[in-house]
Q: What sequence folds into this?
């Protein structure tokens, strides 16, 4: 059984603090679910779609970057797509990038995200919209979007982990 992480307190009523704590909860959950896997297992594709856990973890790094740095702050001209192999049409990790490289870059990006969130109001509107012609979302909307993406991918990680070594978790 994978170590359980504590959810935010049940008496927490501040919606902004609740979403921030749940984001951290799911960030931790995703990484706890892959804890103890070898580099080989992290790179192994066990689903017909062909992605590996390392590719999913690398994707989450870019999810943070796209939504908060590029989208909310408006940094950079091009949408950050370093997690995507355009030729293959799927997630990818650059050659020579180790699992430890991905882990370190992920947590560094999370720290950037946490600082950004601490420096801005949840009601602030993003600099960009992901859909042309639509209003840019608020920071609150972006954080809830990130939360649901992490929760969905935590389920994916659960399934892949069970297929690799029969370990399960919540």
A:
């Amino acid at each position: 059984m994978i170590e359980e992480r504590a959810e935010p307190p049940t008496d927490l009523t501040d919606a902004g603090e609740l979403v921030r704590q749940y984001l951290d909860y799911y960030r931790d959950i995703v990484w706890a679910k892959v804890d103890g896997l070898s580099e080989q297992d992290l790179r192994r594709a066990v689903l017909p779609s062909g992605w590996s856990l390392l590719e999913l973890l690398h994707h989450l790094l870019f999810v943070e970057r796209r939504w908060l740095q590029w989208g909310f702050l408006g940094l950079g001209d091009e949408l950050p797509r370093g997690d995507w192999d355009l030729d293959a049409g799927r997630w990818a990790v650059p050659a020579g990038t180790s699992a430890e490289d991905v882990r370190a870059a992920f947590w560094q990006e999370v720290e950037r995200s946490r600082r950004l969130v601490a420096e801005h109001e949840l009601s602030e509107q993003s600099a960009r919209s992901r859909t042309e012609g639509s209003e840019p979302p608020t920071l609150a909307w972006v954080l809830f979007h990130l939360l649901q993406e992490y929760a969905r991918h935590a389920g994916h990680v659960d399934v892949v982990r069970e297929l690799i070594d029969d370990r399960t978790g919540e």
